[in-house]
Design a protein that fits this description.
The chain has nine helices and ten strands. The chain has 256 residues and is of the alpha/beta class. The strands form two sheets. It has an eight-stranded mixed beta sheet, sandwiched between helices.
Length: 256
Amino acid sequence: MSGYRAHRSQIIKRGNRRLLGLRGAFVVMTFVLVAVAGPRPHAAGRMVAFNLPDGRMISALWMEASDRPAPAVVLVPMLGRPRDEWQATAQRLAEANIHALAIDLPGSTLPENPAELTRWHEPITAAIAYLASHSADVRPGAIGVAGASLGANLALVAGAATPGVASLALVSPSLEYRGVRIDSLLPRYGRRPALLMASLHDPYAARSVRTLAQDTSGPREVRWSSIAAHGTVLLWRDPELVGALVEWFQRTLSVH
C-alpha cells in the first residue's frame, strides 16, 4: 500500500509540474498578445462627420471635454494606422478639459502618384474648419493639432497654411517624407508654439527634431524619450510623453 501511495504521489507531483508549466506558458502567451495588441483603449467617444471641399465625407472620433466652450486638438495618425491609436491620448486630453478629434489619413498606403501625398493635409484643414464652426463648444482661437510620423509632417503642412491653428505637437517628424518636406515650414508657421518629440533611438526622427528645433521664429520645445519606438507607438510605450503632450496643450491653448 505504501508503494502505491508513493507511486500515486509521484504522478500527482508530475501532473502539478505540467499544470504549472501550462499556466506559465499561458501567462507568457497572454503577455505577448497584450504587447502586440497595444494598450487597451479607454471609454469610447462618439463619431462625427464633416465634408472635404470636394464633397467627400470624413468621419472622426470625438472625445468631449466637460466644459463649454473648451480648447480642441486634432489628432493625426501614422501611415497605415487607424485614428483609434490616438484614443487613449484623446481620453487624457478630454480629462484635461480639451476636446479631441481623431481623424484617419486619406489612405492606409502611400498613393501611386507622389503628388497626391502633398494633398493629404486636406482632411486636417477640414477638421480644423469643422471645429472652428462650432464656437459654442470650441473656444475660438484655441485649436491645436498633434500628428505622428507622416501625420506630424501633414500637421505642420496644415498648421503653416492655417492661421487658426494655435499650437502644434509633432511626434517623430521627418524632414522629408516621400516628398512632403517640412524643413522650411516652421518659419512659415511663425511665432506660434510647436512641441517636437522623438526617441533618441530613432535616428532620422531625432535628427529631424534637432534641425527643426533650430528655428527661432517662435517658441519651439523639445521632448526626448529613451525608449526605442516611433510615432504613436512611442506614446504607448512612454506614458510620460503623453502627459507632456497634454500639459503642452494646456499651456499653449490656455486651459483654465
